[in-house]
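Issue 218. Parser rejects a valid record. Input:
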Amino acid sequence: MGMWSTILRYPEASEKETPAMLVWLSPEATTLPAHVHMESTEVFRSVKGELTVVVDDSPRHLATGEELTVEPGDPHYFQNDTDDFVAFEVEVPWKKTIDTQYMTAGLDHEGYFGTDDGYGEPDFVQGLLLAEYVKEETRITIAPKIVQQLLWASVCRVARLTGRSAMDDRYLRDYFWESNVEQPDI
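Output the parser choked on:
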């Protein structure tokens, strides 16, 4: 995917902290689909380089140190429009946002999306499963809600019967990443 992240905060349900990640995007990073959060804000802070956050089809360029709060209901996504790596911190509405990032990265790492060691993107079915997983707080804006609901009730049901799932907790465990991905010497 050309995207790497580490969890900064993954609070328990009883804790009041906001979940957060530190994310690095390569110049070729996958652009995730536009989405809206129903009740919570999402805060982006550029740590290195210029991050582009597109809100309501309007690109906002965040230089290192700048921050942007995306309000509930505003369609948005992020991307790297530069020729270098971009790093940013993001405070996400809920832990399921982190879960989907790690699920997608784990599947990509294991070769489910890419070919010949290249980056890949979730296929249509995996995208539907992930969209259904986050539907309580996050809605992907690529199709009307009623269309997504019909696809969840049909395609996702068949996908689950064949063994596919929206989430595999092993991708949230440090052990998976430490065992399968060379760790930086920091």
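Fixed in the parser; the record now loads. Helices lie at 95-109, 124-133, 145-161, 174-180.
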